[in-house]
Amino acid sequence: MKNLIKTLKNIWSIEELRSKILYTLILIFIYRVGTHIVLPGIDPTALGQVAKQASGGILGLIDTFAGGAFSQASIFALGIMPYISASIFIQLMTVLVPQFQKMQKEGESGRKKINQWTRYLTVGVTVVQASAYVAYLKQITAQSGGVMPGYADYFWLSTVVTLTAGCLFVMWLGEKITDKGLGNGTSLIIMIGILARLPQSFLQELTNKSVRSGQILVFIIEIAVLIAIILGCILLVQGTRKIPVNYAKQIVGNRQFGGARQFLPIKVNSAGVMPIIFAQAIMFLPTLFNLTSLAKTETGQGINRIFTDHTNVWYMTIYAVVVIGFTFLYTALIFNPKQISDNLKQNNGFVPGVKPGQPTADYIGAIMDKVTLPGAFLLALVGILPGIAQLLGVTAGFSTFYGGTSLLIMVAVILDTLQQIETQLLMRQYDGLMKSGRIQGRTVTQASY
């Protein structure tokens, strides 16, 4: 406890770090206030229908990322999701389209161009999603009269404009947190939205267990298991396989360059949380059968039962297979062994015992496949843990923190934030946050969250 107080004093004594923390907290507070401001023309008493409909599937995922704003029909209902979608699309384009690859290699100017394209695409995606959200609101509030009659004629236009402006404002908040705050602004906004649901889910689980005799011990065991799962996720996020790389010595004049031995880190989970996000979107598609005549048949009803019940064995099996497949696919898109081999060759680097060029690329690719395999299985296990927890008696809300997108994002973002704080401490010759070693975050692109 004494060391903790000392560390907090050290953090507060650094003016730059103190201002970054306060700036970040103020912007996060503004975001959380905005999530409770209801859209113009909506009757707040009818929001129960929205919350009920947004409790699962892809709508539940959007509501999670939006910090509950989606189910509350707030001005930030779409949250940062349109920006994430645009970022993912642009990131894939930098891998697949030569023009975007060229921009990426132009350094700072290329990065600014890519960011500008991402913003333009965000506006288009937001307008489309906002229009769909208006239709969604009108459909689920038709019986309860959620839209005020006197405002019905202007509702579509005002809502699309408000949601688009709200999304761009949240995007601006994320960029400001990245520039002047603790960094990783978009990820921090998502994490805060997820954590906002934790107190209510925790109290709901505690209440559920306390009303029955002998269940408090079960609740304590659940908390212990949750802590163990968090520790396992930390290992999954930080786990790396280091490939030794030597650099040839060069003598220029009287000075010697190179000759050092470094390591190329291959992460166990290079794809981050993206495979789980993709898998959740794919698993939602079969439920669209409800919109067709097939929904009335026995086959359609069976498909709907499987893909809407997260505790179903078939759902978890299919979900795990999809996560594993997307892990390999996304890793192959973002990780290019040939490019790494060429970069090593250009910088006079080589892997000991492996010839430069294509043999090095094959060697790195083989190591990547071996490391990705257990990482993909562990990621699939994390993805289905909420369903398993719910089967074992954990309430639906609290079970989401036992794995899946919520837990991975929280672990990764918290590690990144702690690493930022520790770096500031070490730069000023203070002790780090831990005596046993440095906190390792993750070095990922902005779209990997």
TrEMBL record:
NCBIfam families, per database record: 3a0501s007
UniProt cross-references to InterPro entries, sorted A to Z: SecY (IPR026593), SecY/SEC61-alpha (IPR002208), SecY_CS (IPR030659), SecY_dom_sf (IPR023201)
Stated family: Belongs to the SecY/SEC61-alpha family.
Subunit details: Component of the Sec protein translocase complex. Heterotrimer consisting of SecY, SecE and SecG subunits. The heterotrimers can form oligomers, although 1 heterotrimer is thought to be able to translocate proteins. Interacts with the ribosome. Interacts with SecDF, and other proteins may be involved. Interacts with SecA.
Purpose of the protein: The central subunit of the protein translocation channel SecYEG. Consists of two halves formed by TMs 1-5 and 6-10. These two domains form a lateral gate at the front which open onto the bilayer between TMs 2 and 7, and are clamped together by SecE at the back. The channel is closed by both a pore ring composed of hydrophobic SecY resides and a short helix (helix 2A) on the extracellular side of the membrane which forms a plug. The plug probably moves laterally to allow the channel to open. The ring and the pore may move independently.
Major place of residence: membrane
Biological process, per Gene Ontology: intracellular protein transmembrane transport; protein targeting; protein transport by the Sec complex
Record bears the keyword Cell membrane: yes
Compartments in which it is found: Cell membrane; Membrane
Designated name of the protein: Protein translocase subunit SecY
GO cellular component terms listed in the entry, alphabetical order: plasma membrane
PROSITE patterns assigned: SECY_1, SECY_2
Membrane topology reported for the UniProt record: Multi-pass membrane protein
Transmembrane segments: 21-39, 75-97, 117-134, 154-173, 185-203, 215-237, 271-293, 313-335, 376-394, 400-418
Alphabetical UniProt keywords: Cell membrane, Membrane, Protein transport, Translocation, Transmembrane, Transmembrane helix, Transport
Domain of life, source organism: Bacteria
HAMAP family, alphabetized: SecY
Gene assigned in the entry: secY
